[in-house]
Amino acid sequence: MEELLQVNNLEKIYYTGNNNHLKAVDNVSFNVNKGEVFGLLGPNGAGKTSTIKCICGLLDYEGGDVLVKGYSMKKKRRKGLKHISAVLEGNRNIYWRMTVKENLEFFSGINGLSSTKIKERMDYLIKQFQLEDQENVVVNKLSRGMKQKVAIAISLITDKDIILLDEPTLGLDVSMSHEMRQILRRIAKEEDKTILLSTHDMNVVEDTCDRLIIINNGQVIAKDTVENLKNLFNKEIYKILFKGNTEHQLLPKLKNVSNIVELQRQVDHNVVILQLNDANELFAIFELLKGESINLISIEKVTKNLEGIFMDLLKEEQQ
């Protein structure tokens, strides 16, 4: 599998005066393969945007290197940039006083492509992003979601290999965010594009990405496929709903056979969430419940999504 993007031990330092400095990116390494959607996940301030800006040549970096199709962004930036398009948060690659069509023509023009040469691709992208009714509308009059569509369409008009997206769904409503995820998956699959997206939205990564890294305070705290991370961190967690038997009678006995993660008191029932070391421990739970004067409503296994895994990793870091 061809590695189009390699980030090797990247370090970015901001000097704040009085001999103070902030290491925004601290020894970050990963690679992105051709045709892959790769996620850069982390809380706000984790170093995601600084990493993206180093990759697309907007920031110099103090350590490590970034290779785009083998070209160092430190030594051969111009050659590397021929293979990268980027959309930074805030739709900064749009001229708001131009129409959608004019934006696509303008940005293809400054990349050396004539309007006649890109007409077929422009029509294709307008259709892909469902912008047919807006193609002659001034961008400033569009909704935020539509502007984001235009920004990503512009990044694709020159047909470059790697697309860098910084928070592509930030500020979008649920419906538009879901549509944007579908578009990104379709682009990667149908055009064999390599997409690196940074986000703090776990749903975006879970729905679109093949692999990801999770960073916090500028450092990588996890790196794997989405599925492997979910499998690794999905411990045996069960939710038990029951009526009757006051908690001070039942809970001490449950603690002897499991770890109680959470207790929720509802109006007409109680909920206890348990973490087991092994699914076989359920038999001991069943025997215990059988011997107590409770009315068991249900027992179900809880499957963690990426958000739960993300929170677990951040808690481990703080300990």
UniProtKB/TrEMBL annotation:
- Residue span(s) of domain ABC transporter: 5-242
Coiled-coil residue windows: none
Pfam families for this protein:
ABC_tran
Q: Which UniProt keywords apply?
A: ATP-binding, Nucleotide-binding, Transport
Single GO molecular function: ATP hydrolysis activity
> What SMART domains does the record tag this protein with?
AAA
State the similarity comment.
Belongs to the ABC transporter superfamily.
Q: Which protein are we looking at?
A: ABC-2 type transport system ATP-binding protein
Q: Which organism is it from?
A: Alkaliphilus peptidifermentans DSM 18978
